[in-house]
Design a protein that fits this description.
3 helices, mainly alpha, elongated, 5 strands, two-stranded antiparallel sheet
């Protein structure tokens, strides 16, 4: 028959239980709060989207400086035929096709094989599919691009395709389909494509 634990042994084991409980509380509770702020608080998510759109905006300006024009969407050289993205239709499909235009022109993956091409300029870092894929063994927590069918798209921190429209130069106000004389860039945020009140845009209050 084993002897009962002495009071000192019970006290020591109780101290260890209390200590580990304290450590778990100090680690788990802040982690839980941080993730709540990151994933549940709309203000944080919207700030993430705004920062990402600012990166895209800067990339577009750099592209214009090098090429004399912003990437066009839809492109008159292609008969104004927007890139077809599976799962999207109507007016929003044209704007979503802009996510494919942004990918090809800003990522450095101009031949659309998922990797940055030799000699191509990268206007926005880590936009190529390879940098955002689990294939490289270190996919980011927040992907910047995805592949839908055979189409590569730039996506916002919520995982939605970034919307982009840019008319050809020389269009009159009546011909223009964009809010801005340069380009329209936006995210639908937590909302949907039919509810502009939830969008985060580059043409007005959001």
């Amino acid at each position: 028959m084993s002897a009962p634990n002495s009071p000192s042994q019970n006290s020591a084991s109780g101290c260890w239980v209390w200590f580990f409980g304290l450590v778990l509380t100090c680690v788990f509770v802040p982690w839980l709060l941080l993730n709540w702020v990151k994933y549940a608080h709309p203000g944080y998510r919207n700030d993430q989207i705004r920062h990402f759109l600012a990166e895209i905006d800067a990339g577009l300006e750099a592209y214009r400086i090098d090429n004399g024009i912003y990437p066009l969407n839809p492109n008159p050289e292609k008969g104004f035929q927007a890139i077809s993205v599976p799962g999207y239709s109507g007016k929003d499909a044209v704007a979503v096709a802009g996510a494919a235009v942004l990918y090809q022109t800003l990522s450095g993956d101009y031949d659309l094989d998922g990797n940055v091409d030799d000699g191509e300029t990268v206007y926005v870092d880590r936009l190529d599919f390879w940098s955002n894929s689990e294939q490289n063994g270190r996919a980011p927590e927040v992907p910047r691009s995805v592949k839908i069918g055979s189409v590569y798209l730039v996506v916002d921190p919520q995982g939605n395709p970034v919307r982009y429209l840019s008319d050809p130069p020389g269009y009159t106000q009546e011909q223009r389909k964009t809010h801005n004389p340069t380009f329209d860039l936006w995210s639908i945020g937590d909302g949907n494509a039919d509810d502009p009140s939830s969008w985060i845009t580059n043409w007005g209050s959001d």
